[in-house]
Amino acid sequence: MSSWAVVTGASGGLGEAYAHELASQGSDVVLVARSVEALEKVAADLSSDHGVDTLVVPCDLSDADQRASLVARLDVLDVHTLVNNAGFASIGMLGELERDRISREVALNVVALTELTHAVIPQMVARGRGAIINVASSAAFQPIPQMATYAATKSYVLSFSSALWGELSGTGVRVLCICPGPTETSFFTNAGNGDVMKQRRRPEQVVESTFKALRDSKPYVVDGFRNKVLAQMTRFLPTAITVAAASWIATH
């Protein structure tokens, strides 16, 4: 039976970069996202570039029924790596954003990540090996006005992943939370403003930081020196200053 790496949000950007890295390591890859056409293109590239098998699973992870269907598939697959990459943000004052969009943001960034992680842990522990990579953000380290829900969901991902890192220590299952800063993807355009945070890292740099930290068995890593410095500064500055600074950065 094939052993699979599962990547959510795999239709482009950071998810596509993770899929290529895993395929380059010889892993067969399950590609999960909403767009069938985009997934099929990524699948064709993986097969052509790396000679691996792929499985395309179109799924809107913000939808409870579609999540349940994916979880049922994971229960019967041999999953050695899970990359919970799917997520999105909303830029704007909370009271002015659509309620449905905020609900979907929490469902995708928090609920889907938690349910998929829960689904693969028993089989990984039973085998005595596996890796769970949860994509948070440097936003996890401080509240961000006009990205309030996103920052809060990523704080959850960081806390959740660090706790699991402790729970699964000694089982052979590794857990890592990667916290990228601004990255060259469609993230900001999808969030509502593609012109903010122009100093961005490349997806390949984030992936490189991820697998180095995973090899070093770290609970989390912030990608990029500048992002590391900014994340650490929040530990020592008053909340009023970090909130004001985060608000300015998020809108410029």
Walk me through this protein's architecture.
The chain has 252 residues and is an alpha/beta fold. The protein is 51% helix and 16% strand. The protein is built from 9 helices and 7 strands. The protein has helices spanning 13-24, 36-50, 64-76, 99-127, 148-167, 187-191, 203-215, 225-233, 239-250, and strands at 3-8, 28-33, 54-58, 78-84, 130-135, 173-179, 220-222. A 7-stranded parallel beta sheet has the order 3-2-1-4-5-6-7, sandwiched between helices. Strand 1, helix 1 (13-24) and strand 2 (28-33) form a beta-alpha-beta unit. The mean pLDDT is 90.
- Sheet with the most strands, sense and barrel status: 7 strands, parallel
Distance between the terminal alpha carbons, to the nearest Å? 50 Å
Total number of strands: 7
Radius of gyration: 17 Å
User: If you average the pLDDT, what whole number results?
Assistant: 90
Oligomer: single chain
Output the strand order for the largest sheet.
3-2-1-4-5-6-7
Secondary structure: elements and pairs:
Blueprint: E1 3-8, H1 13-24, E2 28-33, H2 36-50, E3 54-58, H3 64-76, E4 78-84, H4 99-127, E5 130-135, H5 148-167, E6 173-179, H6 187-191, H7 203-215, E7 220-222, H8 225-233, H9 239-250
Parallel strand pairs: 1-2, 1-4, 2-3, 4-5, 5-6, 6-7
Descriptive terms for the model:
alpha/beta; seven-stranded parallel β-sheet; 7 strands; 16% strand; globular
